[in-house]
Amino acid sequence: MRVAVVCNPMNPWDAALAVNAALFLSNAIRKDTVVYVNVEGTVIVIDGSRARRVYPDSESLVGLFRAIKKGKRVPGVRIGQCPSCKPWCPGEEPGEEPCLDPSACPFPGPYTVDHKLAVLQIELDRTTARRACNKSSSRPPSK
After folding, report:
1. What domain count does the chain have?
2. What pLDDT does 6 receive?
3. Domain of 61: which CATH number?
4. CA 34 → CA 53, 107, 122, 137, 139, distances in Å?
5. Cys bridge to 4: 22, 68, 74, 95, which one at CB 3.0-4.6 A?
6. Do 49 and 32 touch, CB atoms closer than 8 A?
7. Is 142 contained in some domain?
8. Four-point Cα dihedral 76, 6, 29, 47, nearest 10
9. Which pLDDT tens digit goes with each residue over 40-86?
10. CA distance linking residue 72 with residue 128, whole number of Å
């Protein structure tokens, strides 16, 4: 399970971009990711494996944030608190539950939070794929 955290308060529109970058693939939702995003002081938690009626467009996500803040129940989405976790940065070996915190890794240039989250997810995907390839290639040849 991956954990993406954005604990600094954001406006709903920037938070929607961050959730989109952390949770969505081009054709699916990341089932292995839980996103914690601080929307104007309220931390909203979205569990990709359980989330229903969560869509990638910003308007829908901003509406979802408002509904959750007003007490509406949506499967896989709740109000919570940011976890304390050791952030993973590219170049490191990921642990069991890598924590993606865009404020913790040095990025050259003026990248926004959503760009940083997208890069972290892509780099983690690549690192995980390389690790899987190395494990499968280390098996002894079959006879």
Report:
1. 1
2. 96
3. 3.40.1280.10
4. 15, 23, 16, 31, 33
5. 22
6. yes
7. no
8. -20
9. 999 999 999 999 989 999 999 999 999 999 999 999 999 999 999 99
10. 36
33-39 and 2-10 as β-strands: parallel, antiparallel, unpaired?
Answer: parallel
Residue 121 domain boundaries: 2-137
* 84 belongs to a structural domain: yes
143 domain-assigned: no
d(CA 63, CA 16): 10
Model pTM above 0.90: no
Which residues have C-beta within 8 Å of that of residue 88, sequence separation ≥ 6?
94, 95, 98, 99, 100, 120, 124
Q: What is the pLDDT of residues 87-106, one digit of tens each?
A: 999 999 998 899 999 999 98
Q: Hey, what amino acid is at 57?
A: D
